[in-house]
Amino acid sequence: MMRQDWDIYKDRDVTPKEMFLNRRQIMAGGLGAACVTALPRGARAEALTPNSFEEITSYNNFYEFGWDKSDPKKYAAALTTTPWSVEIDGLVERPGTYALEDLLKMVTVSERIYRFRCVEAWSMVIPWSGFQLSDLLESVGVQSGARYVGFTSVLRPKEMPGQSGYSGIDWPYQEGLRLDEAMNPLTLMATGLYGEDLPKQNGAPIRLVVPWKYGFKSAKSIVKISLLKDQPLNTWQALQPKEYGFYANVNPQVDHPRWSQATERVIGAGLFGGRKETLMFNGYGEQVASLYKGMDLRKFY
Ligand SMILES: Nc1nc2c(c(=O)[nH]1)N[C@H]1C(S)=C(S)[C@@H](COP(=O)(O)O)O[C@H]1N2
Ligand SMILES: [Mo]
């Protein structure tokens, strides 16, 4: 396989022990030799320095646990994540409810450092571990009528305080991708970060990561993946369709109705030094721009 700029280790699988060692390298050196990326032709030569484990796990959006950025870390411990299974249904050759450990035998887990850009105009860089969604979809077999993939997060009102009582959100949290977006090699099902199992506030034990789209597309704690004929409604679009669409591609030229998307606040960079220009497709245009050829991205926001 051709090496990509999101590979932080050279074309190999990472065992749990290696991940632990790598985590120590990342922690100790910021960007150790193991993190030097090989860039495809024409890619911007930019080394991504990950945010700290502390930053990534204490400033979160996970409304099932509350609306404050500090709520997920405070309350997520109550979520039981073992055992866990993921139902795969719809237009698929081998539908079923897969125990997470069985599902992980069908795929290859590796590590990738990705930019992460929230629609609220803040950003981080996150060292995920996970597998390509395409890997899973290929092994369960997508039927020819499938055009979209839907994702459903867990519904556990007893364990998730934001799901009991009034929140305005129609739980469970739902997201969706076009099938070609889901099959893009960048699209990850994350199971860890910094070489450790995914912390609960980040969507344990398995969450979606779509690095060229606003963060809300990256649904957490997923219990169902559905192969669909029609475009599904996603939670934020259902709630506020004028502000949040289905595509949600990071785009500095298309502002949110209430704020600019031209720049972003870099989490961890301090109060004053920390804004940078937002990149088209969050910097992944070379890998994904062709998916949207001929589309009016103002209309399909
Ligand atoms: N189930 C679920 N998934 C979710 C959310 C949520 O509230 N519930 N928030 C989304 C938003 S708005 C963002 S920015 C990211 C945040 O991921 P992080 O906390 O790991 O940085 O998760 C996304 N996935
Ligand atoms: Mo977000």
UniProtKB/TrEMBL annotation:
Residues 81-236 form the Oxidoreductase molybdopterin-binding domain. Signal peptide: none annotated. The keyword Iron does not apply. SUPFAM superfamilies: Oxidoreductase molybdopterin-binding domain. The keyword Signal applies. InterPro entries: MsrP, OxRdtase_Mopterin-bd_dom, OxRdtase_Mopterin-bd_sf. Belongs to the MsrP family. Part of the MsrPQ system that repairs oxidized periplasmic proteins containing methionine sulfoxide residues (Met-O), using respiratory chain electrons. Thus protects these proteins from oxidative-stress damage caused by reactive species of oxygen and chlorine generated by the host defense mechanisms. MsrPQ is essential for the maintenance of envelope integrity under bleach stress, rescuing a wide series of structurally unrelated periplasmic proteins from methionine oxidation. Heterodimer of a catalytic subunit (MsrP) and a heme-binding subunit (MsrQ). This is Protein-methionine-sulfoxide reductase catalytic subunit MsrP. The lineage of its organism: Bacteria, Pseudomonadati, Pseudomonadota, Alphaproteobacteria, Rhodobacterales.
